[in-house]
């Protein structure tokens, strides 16, 4: 009886704590999205849009290309995750940073780079480009858990005669399944809502729900058509998330987590094949990057640093309101604020989710799914929603500079949750129970047990979130004020002007964005937190 | 541990992206613009000194996005004045009642030549024609001079255009062909273009920066602007008989919180000082008469004398159907 009451109390406590992330989501996501969609629905004509033949073609192509891209990203990301987590190789920090670079590159620039290899675009380059952006998600999310899973079970299987592939399939993969599932869900959402890639590489023949929602909302002002498609997008995303949650449910188990240092070894035997595969993936990822850097240096009249020199200026004839350097500084600041918000909301959510799950509350599933939704809804839907809702907040929030980091945080939070959650869940409950039995308060248990075991993942998640915020374009381009643009916004503007110097400067700005990204990742990697065996 | 704190403290100091906004000034006018808006800071500063008005810029996407945002927020607009609604979207903005009437004394000095209607709600600020651009070096002396030339086998596989569904110059070029060949003739023209190997890409960035032979690609004919050659130092030319006129308008918003000062900002946009720098800042032509263009423009990028045009109402009513027809015809 007493036990039942204690369980109830803890459930109510966790449910109340779930209100913070829900309030954030409600205010900056659900409210604006519902407002704009219901405005479209009130106009009528939604049924007509739903039965139109090409609507279902759109849904099919959107989901199909996203699924294909996800498969490619997972297959390419796993060997990289292995190397990052398990191998003791020189220069691994640099690889870890390099893998992040594609993630921040503006889609239009990457699209153009891919067009060099596929001049007419098509489905294959769309899938490959989407995967290109998202290998980092798989490598980081899976690598994060892999770096902490105990090696002994695997070694035992090997000692009992299992081949390497057999040991991987029956011991390692099941342990990693939650992280693979998490990563796949995130990648799928990113690919399902990918905009620039489809536009540039679709050769204007291929359309997705995302490009069509943009077209209907922004160019045709067909809000009812856009609302119909938004609803479809929402349902499709929800269906995938629920399927993912069901698949994840029974797989998440307590693992005995270990520090990376005691697990990393020099690669041996068959592992070298995996390392070689990872090497190939990294080379493939860096090919377009090298192309960009080459382009930033080559002009019609030979090699030149003019684009880089121009970064200190406002562009040819004042294309920009600020210099390239100012934009970089602004990017860093905005991304910092966004990461801070996302970390607070994200870590809080992850802790609450774990707590809710342990106390068996149903709302855990709901909150888990709700937190992912912002990744699956069109930036343009959210942006237009802001226009008709945020003026109700004090001081006409629509043009507030705070809206940019908040919108970025909306994108970053789900990533942080997905990276932290698998690790947090894998913390052995018995350790926590032992601590509690010895008299530790819940806060102390978290600080002494969960934090040390998951600290490394927290830092990695923060770094990843920071980089995502740095590269975020969809929402930022919608909200950034002209006197305070971020680097991706500046690059887009430079690309939209004639003149060789502007184009040079755009590519130089891409290079700057890459350098800043690598710098940030390396810096954050250096921030060691107390973590078992790693301090 | 101390090092972590130091780094964190530094990050916190570097953060707070929104912490430094200045206190609201009583005489501030919010100017909502499209993303391509640009003005010399000195000109803005001079206006502030002479009028006491601070202009706060709010960029809101391209012309279409800007118009739709204005319509969506007309009950409680995000600014006082808007600039950048173009001839394609002007009808929508007017029929939705986004703009208030204002007879600007500056509007009669050239802007009236491009007016949409006689109500005085929208005033032309600049003109930016969309024309074919060519790379003479690559064409080797055989240059197209008209729309018809593009269907000639000599120019097979030489043209790259933007998709009118996703690109504003792409749409302008399609409208130009509709104005030229009529509502029942343009389909035939595009069928011929398709047979002659026209390449379609989704945006200006790809067409101009990636496909155009004067920059990186191998197609010597591209849909761009009459002003683009001014940025290429005489290496390219606009084909002046293949232009479609796009006019960009400004107006005082009906729900402006500061209508009095908003009108002064509109006068400023039409005034001599601002008009004198639109060419250099935005690659467009001033609407005001007697404003000199930069020197290189006279040679490389003159204003097309006889561009194609279509009435704003007609564009508004047919645009979606035309683009859909085009899509079936050229991409089906």
From TrEMBL, chain A:
A GO biological process held by the record: transmembrane transport
Keyword Cell membrane: yes
Domain ABC transmembrane type-1, chain residue ranges per copy: 59-244, 328-524
Main location: membrane
Any GO CC annotation of this UniProt entry: plasma membrane
Highest rank taxon of the organism: Bacteria
Classification of source organism: Bacteria, Bacillati, Actinomycetota, Actinomycetes, Pseudonocardiales
A Pfam family the protein falls into: BPD_transp_1
Record family assignment: Belongs to the binding-protein-dependent transport system permease family.
Full protein name: Thiamine transport system permease protein
The entry's keywords: Cell inner membrane, Cell membrane, Membrane, Transmembrane, Transmembrane helix, Transport
Transmembrane segments annotated in the record for this chain: 59-85, 97-118, 124-147, 168-201, 221-247, 273-293, 338-357, 369-390, 402-424, 457-480, 505-524
TrEMBL record, chain B:
Gene Ontology MF annotations: thiamine binding; thiamine pyrophosphate binding
GO CC terms of this entry: outer membrane-bounded periplasmic space
CDD domains: PBP2_TbpA
Protein name: Thiamine transport system substrate-binding protein
A GO biological process held by the record: thiamine transport
Organism in which the protein naturally occurs: Lentzea xinjiangensis
Pfam families: SBP_bac_6 (PF13343)
PROSITE patterns according to UniProt: PROKAR_LIPOPROTEIN
